[in-house]
Design a protein that fits this description.
Order of helices and strands: EEEEEEHHHHHEEHEEHHHEEHHH
Number of strands: 12
Largest sheet: 4 strands, antiparallel
Strand content: 15-25%
Number of helices: 12
Structural class: alpha+beta
Helix content: 25-40%
Distance between the termini: 82 Å
Shape: rod-shaped
Radius of gyration: 34 Å
Amino acid sequence: MTKRGRIEFGGRSALDLTGARVGRLVAVRPVAVRATYVVWSCDCDCGKTANVPASCLTRARPTRSCGCLREEASVRRLTRHGMTESATHRSWEAMRTRCANENRDNFARYGGSGITVCERWQNSFEAFFADMGSRPPRTSLDRIDPTRGYEPGNCRWATAREQANNKTDNVCVTVDGRTQTVAEWARELGIAPYTLYGRLKRGDSPSAAIRPVAPPKEITHNGMRATVREWSSRTGVAVRVINKRLARGLPPEAALRSA
């Protein structure tokens, strides 16, 4: 700033900044006197007006706008990757919010339980994207070890089924050296999960509980008893479909229902 004269304002002598340009600001007139400084009304190039202390206009690193520069920098930081509206960016925002915003309904299960976002990901979507890549369809962000926070090496894009199998309250069963959740065993055997839960609850050993349900050779429905094959001919439902439904624990009326 070039050397300037002085003016009298509010009973004190002050540097005359009238017409001085600092960044986007142009000082128009003094508008107030505080304990140790004069406040100047400044026009900003963005069209807004800001009241700025004189010292903030004359120091080595002066105020250069009404605040619009900071806002624009924030927008550029968020949009320069061109992915602000992407599913990946939404997952990043949701991750940070549930760990930091106490007003969120799920905060107690995340931030309230000590789950945090690592420093690398907390303030940089670019770093998160570099580590995780684009979010595939029908997936969401999952922590591999649910007792640890969001950090490289502990996160993956997982389907709803994969996430359900990764909950801390899942019941796992080991048979012949293989450990799976009850839901996974049920899907493999083609039976309902509650059937396995019931077997385990009544005291069956894991090897006894993890067994398929043998479909009955005959079914009674509407007072008539017939073989599965006979019912298949009557209803038009394939034998394998009826057997699969019965193995899942469905009652006869549901097993014989046409699609």
